Amino acid sequence: MCLAPVQPVLLALNHLLASESWATERLHPFAGQILCIEGGGLTLRLAVDAKGMFAEAPATGEPTVSISLPADTPWRLLTDRPSILANARLAGPADFTETLGFVFRNLRWDAEADLAALVGDIPARRLVMAGRQFVGWQAAATRNALANMAEYGSEESGLLVPVREFRSFAATLNDVRGELAELERRLQKLAG
Q1: Residues of the chain with pLDDT under 70
Q2: Residue 59 in contact with residue 45, Cβ under 8 Å?
Q3: How far apart are CA 69 and CA 87, in angstroms?
Q4: Residue 5 pLDDT
Q5: Looking at 86, 106, 126, which one is the last position of a domain?
Q6: By residue range, what is the domain housing residue 167?
Q7: Helix crossing, 121-151 with 111-119: angle to 10°?
Q8: Of 59, 86, 106, the domain-final residue
Q9: Do 86 and 18 fall within a single domain?
Q10: Based on the domain organization, do 124 and 138 belong to the same domain?
Q11: If we measure between CA atoms, which residue out of 42, 38, 34 comes closest to residue 5?
């Protein structure tokens, strides 16, 4: 387990929290409590400060809450972000874990507002729209590539069993189980 660089994550999280007063209000009562996020061989230790923001936590001491992210979190960041928190394991007091879960699920980055401060409203809007189109295109390309690899693996190379053959085998297996159960019932009736 390797400690992750905390400063970039702190800057990003606190930037998001600074624009969402509801989030800092929810975190404020938990000032001084430590959060440990583990995933992909990295560990990140954060503490809630008196303002409801995050600060670097000391390397010693037990965390109040531990969040274990799925091993494929980097991949999910690209393909299915909502599933990251859905598959994360949280351990700790219910009130703090629920608050953290709510904050992380609902915290959103307003990229357009940040860009508007740099380049103006209209260019920021256009840049965000172009970025969304690009991300959508990348996601579609990734899905298509995976579908093509799955089709090649199951239809052409024979490395994988096609879904239709698997379903047919499963249905046949269920029929055999039913017939076997009927045969056992008849044998018991003859023996008894």
Answers
A1: 1-6, 78-79
A2: yes
A3: 7
A4: 62
A5: 106
A6: 111-191
A7: 140
A8: 106
A9: yes
A10: yes
A11: 42
